[in-house]
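Model it.
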Amino acid sequence: MVLRGFEDRLERLVEGMFARAFRTGLQPVEVGRRLIRDVDANRTLDVHGRTVAPNRFEISLATEDFERFAQIKDSLITELVATVRAHGADEGLMFLGRISVNLLEDADLTVGMFRATPLFDETINPNAPMGWLMVNDGTVLELPARQLTLGRMPSCDVVLPDPNSSREHAQLHPDGDSFVLIDLGSTNGSRVNGERVTRRLLVDGDTLTFGTVSLTFRQA
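Modeled.
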């Protein structure tokens, strides 16, 4: 189910203006399948007996494939990270640090070939964003690993430009590698995927609605 969802999203990602670029050569979905195999093949037990999996993946691509992938690099990396995280959750795996995927160019590789190196890495920058909020107009708001307030007041971390939003409408609290959305007793409420909530652990792709403002949550 995890990989099927990834494949469906990748199909939508390369539709339209990117479709011609991905008719030949390496296909993005092949990379996703490989990461899942690498997670399963390299799982191990830590000193506490917990099953842990690689959390850093270096993907080396042929020059032509690297240039084509550059067209969707940010979205592709987001989808690959989400796929690894979801597979780990389904399998009850733990990660030593944040999940990271890096695309590298290797001129020695031929088109259609790639090399994936899975690593266990505790050193991934803890100050890196834990996620993003994506606005319909294309604006991307970084979410650092701390409590954040959303509301109409200019002093809020995320300002909601809507008179129907409360002055301090909701908060995001870090929880693991995601956030919990907490409504602050707002007049018009907070919604996740259309459902009014007072408290909800967010997952990648959730749509958050405050009044007439809708934001898409993406995990780092």
